[in-house]
Amino acid sequence: MGTENRIPTLEDVFLLVDGKVPLVIEIKRNDKFDELMPKLISMLDKYKGEYVVKSFDPRIVYWLKKNAPHITRGQLAAKNIREVKGRIMKFLLGKMFFNIFTKPHFISYQYTNMNSKMYNKQKRKGRTVAVWIVKSKEEYLKIKDVCDMVIFENEETIL
Predict the structure, then answer these.
(1) What's the CA gap between 120 and 72, in Å, rounded?
(2) Residues contacting residue 148 through CB under 8 Å, at least 6 positions apart
(3) Cα 33–91–68 angle (5° rounding)?
(4) Could you give the C-alpha distances from 117 to 19, 30, 147, in angstroms and in order?
(5) Which of helix, strand or coil describes residue 138?
(6) Residue 47's pLDDT is what?
């Protein structure tokens, strides 16, 4: 407040990036995703750059599978997701149970919980494995052999 700065819209981001780098678009949990998703797909279909869409919410990943199968979709996962209520749901999401239905192209797993057993299981299923958010070169060196892709917090991490 009290500043001219504002959060950019997705259209602003598309104009700024203009296809120069691939985008990773995360859709947060939202009970109005049925209204939001068609608008997003319309915008993405007009964008000329590369992108993937991911979410913690398997309903969103499933929606993408059914309504926009041409879009590369990913399932975010972690052992303990704060926003999720209930032990059973936390367990199911942590074990990626819903992937049976959502069929994500890639898994984006919290790096602190990723291990070679989990990596090998996802690779057998033909999925790409990304880890998030790696904050240092030391963290990267620990995780680099059990993932295909790393989401960094900042560019200094990889220098």
Answers:
(1) 21
(2) 106, 128, 129, 130
(3) 30
(4) 35, 32, 11
(5) helix
(6) 96
SS3 101: helix
Pairwise CA distance, residues 118 & 99, whole Å: 14
Q: For the chain, where are the E strands, in sequence order? A: 23-26, 51-55, 73-77, 106-110, 128-134, 149-152
- Here the tokens at position 128 are 């790409």
Are 44 and 13 in contact by the 8 Å Cβ rule? The answer is: no
Query: Mind listing the pLDDT tens digit for each residue in 2-56?
Result: 788 899 999 999 999 999 999 999 999 888 988 999 999 999 999 999 999 999 8
* 23 bridge partner residues: 51
From start to end of 93-148, where are the E strands?
106-110, 128-134
Nearest to 71 by CA among 94, 57, 55, 93: 55
Question: How would you label 97-132 residue by residue, b for 16+ Cβ within 10 Å and e otherwise?
Answer: ebbeebbbbbbbbbbeebeeebbeebeeeebbbbbb
Is residue 94 within 8 A of residue 75, CB to CB? The reply is no
What pLDDT score was predicted for residue 80? Answer: 66
Q: Under 8 Å CB-to-CB from 114, ≥6 apart: which residues?
A: 129, 131, 143, 146, 147
Report the Cα 57 to chain-centroid distance in Å.
Answer: 10
